[in-house]
Structures are given as C-alpha cells and as structure tokens.
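new request in #modeling-help
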Amino acid sequence: MDKREELIRIATALFSERGFENTPLSVVCEKANVSKGLISHHFKSKNGLLREIFIKTTELIIEMNQLDQSNLTAHEQLQTLLESFFAQLESDKMRFQFNLNMMVQPNTRAILSDLIKERSDFILKSVRNIFDQIDPNTSLVKSHAFIAELDGIALNYLAVYDHFPLRKIKTHIITKYIAQ
Amino acid sequence: MDKREELIRIATALFSERGFENTPLSVVCEKANVSKGLISHHFKSKNGLLREIFIKTTELIIEMNQLDQSNLTAHEQLQTLLESFFAQLESDKMRFQFNLNMMVQPNTRAILSDLIKERSDFILKSVRNIFDQIDPNTSLVKSHAFIAELDGIALNYLAVYDHFPLRKIKTHIITKYIAQ
Amino acid sequence: MDKREELIRIATALFSERGFENTPLSVVCEKANVSKGLISHHFKSKNGLLREIFIKTTELIIEMNQLDQSNLTAHEQLQTLLESFFAQLESDKMRFQFNLNMMVQPNTRAILSDLIKERSDFILKSVRNIFDQIDPNTSLVKSHAFIAELDGIALNYLAVYDHFPLRKIKTHIITKYIAQ
Amino acid sequence: MDKREELIRIATALFSERGFENTPLSVVCEKANVSKGLISHHFKSKNGLLREIFIKTTELIIEMNQLDQSNLTAHEQLQTLLESFFAQLESDKMRFQFNLNMMVQPNTRAILSDLIKERSDFILKSVRNIFDQIDPNTSLVKSHAFIAELDGIALNYLAVYDHFPLRKIKTHIITKYIAQ
DNA sequence: GATGAATGAGTATTCATTCAT
DNA sequence: AATGAATGAATACTCATTCAT
C-alpha cells in the first residue's frame, strides 16, 4: 500500500468536501492512518500537497483530451466533448468541486497560480482547435463562451441550485451546438 | 461616521480579496480602526458579520431587478438585463468575486445556505419571468442555461483567464439572445 | 498584578537558566499562569518578547551608568565601576548569564543585532570616557581590553570553572587598575 | 572519502555558524550528502555527534600545547602562547565561536559538562605551569585572570564589536605580559 | 556501511470569542 | 457604544529518532 498515493487520494476528497483552508492536516492524516510528519516528508507542506493534487488532476485532464479525434468533424468533436463533460460532471462531482474551490478561493488561487494558468491555457487551446475548424475568425470568442458556459453549468449544478435540471440542460446545450 | 456600516464595507472588500477564512477579524478591525470587541457587539460573531454582508448584497440585487419593465418586450428585457450584468461585472468586480467565493466555498456555503437558496430562487424566478413570455414550456431550462452562462462568464473573467475578452463576449452573448 | 511585567520577569529567568531556544513558551506561560495567547497579544512573538527583555536590561545598564561621577578622578571612577561590576556579577548572576547567552548564540544574536550594537556602543563610550581622562591616545585599546577582561571574568565565573576564585580575581584586577 | 569525518567537519562548521539547537540534522545531512540514518549509525544521536566534535577539538588543543618549551623562560612561553592564541583566533574563528557557543549555552553545557571540565582543567594546568615559574603564590589567580582575559578578547572580537581592534589589543596584551 | 520512509512528541503561532470596564 | 486584556482551542510545521531493507 503506497501511503503517498493514499494521502493524495484522501486529501483530494477532503479538500473538495470541506475546502482547503477548512481541512486540517490532522484530519487528512487521521483518515489516511498516517502520522503528521509523513506529509512533511512527502510533500514538504500543506501547500505542497495541494499543488501535487492539482498537478495530478491536470494530468488527468490532459490525458483525456489526447484521444485521437482527427477522423471526426468539428461538430462531432464538440458533441463528444460535451457528452464526456456531462458524464464526468455527474460521476465525479468531487473533482469538479475541487477545481471550482481552488480557482475561486483567493488563497488557493495564489498558491496554484502558475499551475492554473498552465491548465486553463491548455483547455483554451484544446477547445480552440475545434472551433478553428468551424471559423478561425470567431474561434477565440466562441471558445471562451463555450468554456464559460460549461463552467457555469458546473457551478450552478454543484454550488447553487439543489434541483438543477442537469439532464435537460445537457440536451439543450448539445442541441444548440450541434445545430450550429 | 457610522462604524457599523464602515465595518460592513471594509469586511466585504477584505472577504472578497482574501476569502472569508483567510481574513482574520483582527485585519478587519485594524483597517476599520476599531477594537475587536466592537464586532462582537454589533454582529455577535464572524459568521454573523458574513450573513449581514450577504443579506445586504441580496437586497441590492433585488432592488436592481425591481425596475418596472412591463412596457418592454421579452427580448428587450433580456438585453437590458445583459447590459446591466456586463456593466456591473466590470465596475464592481469585488462583489462578484465575493458572491463566487461564498457560494463555492463549502464552509461559507453552509453558513449562508438559507440565504443562498433565497437569493438564487429569486434570481431564477426573475429570469424565468422573462423566458415565460417567450415560451413557458422551455423557460425553466432556458433560464437555468442563461444564468449558468452568465455565472460562467463571471467565473472565467474573474478567476481563470487574465485576458478574458469580456467586451467581445458581451457582444457575442447579446447578439445570440436578441436574435433568438 | 501586571501580567505583562510578570511575563518579562519570568521569561528573563527562564531564558537565562535554559537558554532561549530551549525554553518553550509553554513553560513560560505555565510559570506565569497565563495563556499562550497572551504572549502574542503583548509581544507579538517569542522574538518580540526576547527583544523586550533585552531592551529592559539595556535600560537598567544605562541607568546605572548615569550616576554623576564628575567629582571623582579617573582611577576612582574605575574603582567604582569595578566594585559595582563584581558586586552585581555575584548578586545577579542570572542577568549576566542571560547577556552572555544572547550575544554568543548565533540565533539570538541575529534577532537582537541592532540592540546589541546599541548597547555595546554605549558601554564602550562610557568606559572610554574614563580612559580618555588618563590618556586619550590609548583610550580606545585600553577600553576594549578593560571590557574584554571583565566579560572574560564573567564568562569563566559563570560558564567554565566551578571554583573560579572571583574574590581574589576582584582584588587582583582592582589593584592592577588602581596602581596603574 | 570518509563520510564519518566529513560529517564531523560539516557539523562543526554548522554548529558554529548557527548554534547547536538551531542546526537540524537534516541540514547537516543535506550539506554532507548523506542520509539521516547514517548519523544515527555513526554517532548514535545528535548529542553523540556533538560530544565527538568537542572531543576532537580538545585533542587539537592538547596537541598544540604539548610542544616542548622547556628551554624557554616563563615570559617567553607566555609570549609564544599569546602569539599562538591571536594567530588562531584570526585564522580559525569558527572553532572559537564553536567553543564559546557550547560553553555558554545551558543546554550544550549540560550535554558536554564532563568534557568541558576536563578541557578547562587541562588549560588551567597548562597556563599555571608557566605562572608557577614566576611566582607559585600568585599563579592560580594570575592564571585565571590570564585565561579570562583571552576568553574575553575572543568573546568581544567574535560576538560583540564589529570593529574590535584585535591587532592593537594583541600588542597591548603582549607588552603587558612581557614587561611584567 | 547506507538509505529513506515513517513516527510522534513538541512548538510557535493564529484567531474567534469573552468580559470587565 | 467602545476598548483591549485575556483565553484556549486549533493548526501547520519541525525534527530527532527508529527501523526495515
């Protein structure tokens, strides 16, 4: 059993549920059944642990986007992307919650600022690759609007409305972008 | 000089910039030039101060939405709403930052849960009033999509991209909804 | 009962006996019957407490040197100074121990560097005032030699030899300087 | 490359510069490019390492004092001793700093108490051997005064005055003892 | 001889809150 | 209404030491 991986796994869950600042390392250690010193040993500090988690999540995101889709049309790629987004949003709420927390909270945003920039640049580039195939002149704005729309959906689903109609929104959005 | 109002003003700014948990009351007091005891006296606790601020902000939002627009068409109302949203987003970043923080952070969301529900229900109702005039059958989903889109824009503008093309997005969005 | 003064009194004793780094604030607070938070409140930090103590000690030293001795000859002034030094060395070992600790230990020396400079400059100036009356050409070296000699005696008495013959040394030194 | 010797060398330097308590073994290991376990293996504990260093230094001191000087007069021996002291004080500040630290700091003094006694007794005996040749009746006091004077000079040179006039003090002291 | 993961006690510091004045 | 001394629980972090390999 790798305690380092275990710590990352448990800390991710706790930081998502409770927020970074509201999660003492003592709780992380308790849940992971390790001593406090081990976090120092592996991650240097609480901030170090946070950065490690964020990096791992970015790697996951990049990995998922590296499927070869060169045989699909732009609209098919958009559809694939949307299906994947909504599927994950439902199945891995925790990670979306984590990402929202970290980017919105001033403190964590500062700790992660370079990593956030890296990741969001990658995402923009990926989405823009698709919109470029439709119309290079409008791709920047459309990419930003697209990303913002999905982020807003995640935000409202996870943090605002108890009865957010996610499935209907999914249909609505997909229809909109396919028919485009 | 009303120290109570002064405290609310300063605390709002600080909670926005630094986050709630990362803003000790000592800093609030220092900036407001008052003693620690005074916060207890006026707001009972730090949570009490936070709720007070959130309530004030909700009142502001409600006030702004109570302009009589019965003489406008639905699409004109949408346009007015969007213009107002983008104008405020640029001129009062702080308050948007504050709202995002409070809703995303698990801890503050818990403290404010009833107030968040109240406010977001009000917003949904207001927007839905407009979309009902276009098509009652789709108004719920469209309202949610509309709100999510704006929230996502605020999120990306304030917390993700340094060079978010806000003005172009504004044009893009308004065009989209007006032409609808 | 002034808890602030009490804290300074007790911390001085403990830092002398155990050294600064080897004296946890928990022990200071326990002995003083106050909470840990009170040290933060009054002195900001452990370093702040240390500086406060050092400053108070410097004030004591300066006070003692401000007796008017203009009616005494230089050699009489030296004798007075030596008598006073040996008397205090015996009666207030603690404070000498404290001063030695703080100046020799790299860590505390760094924390107090400005204050140490201030104090040692004052002492040099005071001693040199006397030696100037004997011979201005040699006063700098003689003052330094004089101060070093006394510091060395304190060091050997307090930190090296269990059976240091302090009284005989006193007679020896006084004879030497008077006969000069 | 003998890692044991390397560790002693590096630890001596670090304990001198930073003080014993303020030098974590982690720093020693890092500088020496060895693992933490190795210190335990070689020296059992941090205190063990300290004692080892102190013992080595004492051996150095004893060695230097065992030159045969039976053909010199007492005053010549004193002069030799003083020349050697001042030369070393300038060339090996670090070791003097180390010795001062260890003897003044209550914690290290306790750890080394037997070794300190041994060494200082040896030094007293050595110096007294010389003063005995001048006058056995006063040799004890004069030896103590002599040692204290040199310690005081080291203390003031290393830990008090930035611009301590070491060379002039040297001339002053040597003149004093030779002319005696 | 040598490594490095793991421990756990220890420590300074932070901070919301209370309360006498 | 307003102050500020005082509390005490909470928290991140340090660090010597142990031990399996």
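bot summary: Chain D has nine helices and no strands.
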